[in-house]
Design goal:
The complex is a heterodimer of chains A (312) and B (355). By secondary structure, chain A is mainly alpha-helical. Chain A contains 15 helices and no strands. Helices cover 70% and strands 0% of the residues of chain A. In chain A, helix 5 packs parallel to helix 9. Classes of the chains: A mainly alpha (312), B mainly alpha (355).
């Protein structure tokens, strides 16, 4: 936890010297401190660098990519050459250009789906942790149901009914199946925080439950929420690639998942085009790994035992 | 753990103190199992109902699409028509009657006819494919769990050395691999380039499924690459999970105390720290299973392995809704039952949960 616990003696002093309390650190300072904790972790540093590279590639794709994403007319299924560093596809498109343009889709889906899943997880998890009684039992059952139903089959079934929906459909499907885990983690943290003194104090000072949950409790879980975002984004990127590889969604969009779909369908294995198979998967794996690595640093914010550089 | 509390009715049985706690302990264990079984039934009902609601929420009419497709294979019998309408919904029908008809179908395992593999029934197709997936996923998951947990214990105990860094980094990298990509790479290098393993199917073209040594050997040979894929991709999660809980346990006082007592490091690591750290990892076992089952769908697609996943892929690409619904139900029910078994095992290992 990032909050400093206040020893009882200072509490008394605090009551007297109400006016001279040091103000809460500004949001900017908090962000900087969190960022430096994450950066101080070696693994997280590698992750941040890789993620930064991918974001740069996605943003500057129009400048970097040698050809258009769907520009064809080159030799079909050609091997790597000076003109086409990673060869061409069976439809005569440049593999390297597709790879660069495809990064936009993966990063976009990861960002949006991760963010939406996290927002739902925060809303459900925090209110669920705060309410008691029958309502909590009902939410408990629903969340557990979503946790235990295998995600990918559910995604496949929904995507099959909404066939041809494109990226928007994939984001919706990923969010529907991806919010439950975060909700459960945030709920147990809320439950342990709601019995703390500062929450009791807020209740007695007449604050409304909504304000207590989202203004008093929420800021104490920043690291968990950030960690949940990176976890959800990783899952979203992998799920998107999996669905597109199966040919669900819009196969005319150029993304890493659809590249692999077309590679399989054009028998790239038999023609020995290893770059076409190897490159998109490696990019997915690297992007997902970078997020996982950043999460090592995020873990360190809330649990000093997991910080690096200290033996047990 | 023997409990000190005495059940309300056993106040007079204090004369036989030896028997009382045992009986109440057994009663509590039975109560725990009954509670979990009740929850399983409730969850099963919810999953079955979700399977009923899904096609009805979707735009268009899946039932009409299915009937139109089926009509291409020849005349549709009344029984088939009503079976499909019960599963996928008719726009005009009474929803309650449909629900009752659907529940009846599920209980009698009558899912109608598949039109991709016409005239085979959905139940036939599912029962042929199910054993392959169950054995493949089941065996590999248990191997991955045991191996990953051991490596995680080692990583936490030798924290900071290469025994920690290597498995942790390799594990988190490998678990970020998309299942299908690992599968494609293995298929390409070990199948096409190296020619070490067959490239598709569950048994050779000349073999017939039967219980002989020859066939089983052939089946294992064909399952090797899919199994290896699932192992590589799922191992990292177990290593990381075990390592992180183990690091927290190592910091606990009782472990320090055991070390101060001069116990052998291996005894402290395995019988003191790891024993408690394994419990949270076991909880995630049930939840991770859903992910592994999902991954196995992609793996089966790559290797053309004739399990549930490959069948689901075929159903989806051919918009074979009856088959798809039945498969989704089958997969969900299997995962729910596996979770129930893990819950029971957890109750055995950690008596506190039985309260």
């Amino acid at each position: 936890m990032t909050t400093q616990s206040i020893p009882p003696s200072t509490r008394a002093v605090r009551a007297i010297e109400e006016a001279s309390i040091a103000p809460a650190p500004s949001p900017l300072k908090v962000v900087l401190r969190v960022a430096s904790t994450v950066w101080s972790n070696g693994k997280a540093r590698i992750g941040i660098v890789i993620l930064g590279l991918f974001i740069l590639i996605a943003v500057f794709a129009p400048l970097i990519a040698p050809y258009g994403a769907r520009q064809n007319g080159f030799d079909r299924s050609a091997d790597a050459s000076a003109a086409h560093w990673l060869g061409t596809t069976a439809a005569g498109e440049d593999v390297l250009s597709q790879l660069i343009w495809g990064s936009q889709i993966s990063i976009f889906v990861g960002l949006v789906a991760g963010l939406l899943s996290t927002v739902i997880a925060v809303l459900v998890g925090l209110s669920w942790g705060y309410v008691r009684g029958f309502g909590a039992d009902v939410i408990n059952f629903i969340v557990n149901l979503f946790l235990v139903i295998p995600g990918l089959p559910l995604m496949i079934v929904i995507a099959a009914y909404l066939s041809g929906g494109g990226i928007g459909m994939i984001i919706v499907v990923v969010v529907i199946t991806g919010w439950a885990w975060g909700a459960r983690v945030l709920r147990s943290q809320t439950q342990s925080l709601r019995s703390r003194d500062f929450v009791t104090a807020a209740v007695f000072s007449g604050e409304r439950p909504f304000r207590i949950v989202f203004r008093e409790i929420l800021p104490n879980m920043t690291s968990l929420i950030v960690g949940n975002f990176f976890g959800a984004a990783t899952a979203a990127i992998l799920a998107e690639a999996g669905l597109e590889y199966l040919g669900l969604g819009d196969t005319t969009v150029v993304s890493w998942g659809t590249m692999l779909f077309w590679a399989q369908n054009s028998n790239a294995l038999l023609t020995g085009q290893w770059a076409l198979l190897f490159a998109p998967g490696l990019c997915i794996a690297l992007l997902a790994t970078s997020l996982t690595l950043i999460n090592f640093g995020v873990d360190g914010i809330s649990n000093p035992r997991l910080r690096e550089g200290k033996q047990r | 753990m023997t409990s000190v509390t005495i059940a309300p009715g056993s106040a007079e049985s204090t004369a036989a103190p030896a028997g009382a706690p045992a009986a109440s302990g057994r009663g509590r264990a039975l109560g725990y199992i009954a509670r979990k079984a009740g929850l399983l039934l409730l969850t099963l009902w919810a999953a079955i109902t979700l399977n009923f609601i899904l096609p009805r929420l979707m735009p268009g009419s899946p039932a009409d699409a299915a009937l139109a497709k089926l009509a291409q294979n020849g005349p549709v019998s009344e029984a088939t028509k009503s079976a499909i309408e019960a599963q996928l919904g008719v726009p005009t029908g009474n929803i309650l009657e449909q629900y009752v008809a659907y529940l009846h179908q599920v209980v009698t395992l009558d899912f109608g006819v598949s039109y991709t593999f016409y005239p085979q029934s959905v139940s036939e197709l599912v029962s042929t494919a199910l054993p392959y997936t169950l054995v493949l996923v089941g065996v590999v998951t248990i191997i991955a769990f045991v191996l990953g947990t051991l490596l995680g214990v080692l990583a936490a105990w030798k924290r900071g050395t290469w025994l920690d860094t290597l498995p942790t980094l390799a594990g988190s990298f490998a678990s970020a691999f998309p299942y299908f990509w690992t599968a494609l790479l293995l298929l390409f290098f070990a199948g096409y380039v190296g020619r070490l393993f067959p490239t598709s199917g569950a048994y050779g073209p000349t073999a017939t499924p039967e219980f002989t040594i020859g066939f089983l050997g052939d089946a294992i040979y064909h399952a090797a690459l899919p199994a290896l894929t699932i192992l590589i991709t799922s191992l990292g999660g177990w290593i990381l999970g075990m390592r992180n809980t183990m690091i927290s346990t190592i910091g606990d006082d009782y472990v320090t105390f055991a070390e101060a007592n001069g116990l052998k490091p291996r005894t402290v690591a395995l019988r003191y720290a790891a024993r408690n750290a394994i419990l949270p990892n076991l909880t995630s076992f049930g939840l991770a299973l859903g992910g592994v089952v999902g991954g196995s769908i992609l793996v089966e697609r790559v290797f053309g392995y004739p399990g549930i996943g490959y069948l689901l892929f075929n159903a989806v690409t051919n918009q074979d809704y009856p088959l798809m619904q039945a498969l989704f139900l089958m997969i969900t029910v299997s995962v729910l039952i596996a979770n129930f078994l893990v819950d029971i095992l957890y109750g055995v290992l950690d008596p506190r949960t039985r309260r």
